[in-house]
Amino acid sequence: MQPLIVETIFVLVKIVAVLAVVLLMVAYMTYMERKVIGHMQVRLGPMRVGPHGLLQPIADGLKLILKEDIIPAEADKWVFRLAPVMCLVPALVIYAVIPFDANFVIADINIGILYILSISSLGIYGIVMAGWASNNKYSLMGGFRSAGQMISYEIFLGFSIIGPIMLAGSMNLTEIVKAQEGVWFIFLQPLAFVIYLIAGTAETNRVPFDLPEAESELVAGFHTEYSGMRFAYFFLAEYANMLVVSALATILFLGGWRIPFISSLDIPVAILMILHISAFIFKMLLFMFIFMWLRATYPRFRYDQLMGIGWKVMFPLAIFNIAATGIIYYFVM
């Protein structure tokens, strides 16, 4: 009985640690984005709250907590209240299977990829529920747009990860990272990486695919009627999903926690784990920077262009990549 208690406590400690780090990163991703875009546009970004504006996310959080929570009189109140939770909870639950190190993962399951795809698909319910419950035509249009966009691009995102799965021979995320000991899959699957990056950008409703939130057309889209912390939940979910997409890209294409040329060195296990987790987070932040770079660079697509690129370009390329990977794997391996 004693080992079971110790193991349970260890799992709870990992859950608390992962949630604390993820929520802190989500809060400071808003700061990072404002700073990155500010410097790209030759301005400073947040500067006044704390040194170089470092306390700005905390000030934003306090402001949203203290703001009045308004529910439209004609809204479906229960669905209206539930929608932000339906967006945020799946985004956080996914981190249960993300391996930050070979020895630091909450649940190392054999079908980690399927778990992530199934849980992430639940987030669309929250967005559709928010659009419907608001009793607002702009919100409803944003919810329907998001449903079509996320369902479409989730298909291509799923197809893009089949190549790395075929090379690793496993859906276990830890095993996929271990399979990249010799060479990272980004060099073996460059087309899959590009498809994944585009599909992941669209899946998280980021520029240039932020059609569900198009301010110029839909007045912020599905969350128009939300205020206070419920409004904040949608942004927490968006940045949490961006971190998930970045973490999965790190695992599938950039070797996960692996650091080149360090495996041969004699380093204590505790220090090695810290180095691995730091490397994993650094690679995630690299992808987050790409998301922000795209926002500062590209204009928004029209909705017909968005769906056309998905079905006429991404879908054939994803199928071609799977077929090419299978043929090459058959003759080479």
When the domains are counted, the total is 1
Number of helices: 14
**Overall 3D shape:** globular
Q: Write down how many β-strands occur, each being a DSSP E stretch of 2 or more residues.
A: 0
Secondary-structure element order, N to C: HHHHHHHHHHHHHH
How do you describe this structure in short?
This protein is 69% helix and 0% strand. The chain has 333 residues and is mainly α.
List the helices and strands and how they pair.
Elements: H1 2-40, H2 56-66, H3 77-93, H4 112-120, H5 123-133, H6 137-160, H7 162-168, H8 173-178, H9 185-188, H10 190-203, H11 215-218, H12 228-253, H13 269-297, H14 303-332
Helix pairs in contact: 1-2, 1-12, 1-13, 2-12, 3-5, 3-12, 5-6, 6-10, 6-14, 7-14, 10-12, 10-14, 12-13
Can you put this structure into words, describing what you see?
The chain has helices spanning 2-40, 56-66, 77-93, 112-120, 123-133, 137-160, 162-168, 173-178, 185-188, 190-203, 215-218, 228-253, 269-297, 303-332. The protein is mainly alpha-helical. The protein has one domain (73-332). Helix 2 packs across helix 12, helix 10 packs antiparallel against helix 12 (228-253) and helix 12 crosses helix 13. The N and C termini lie far apart (46 Å).
Highlighted features:
mainly alpha
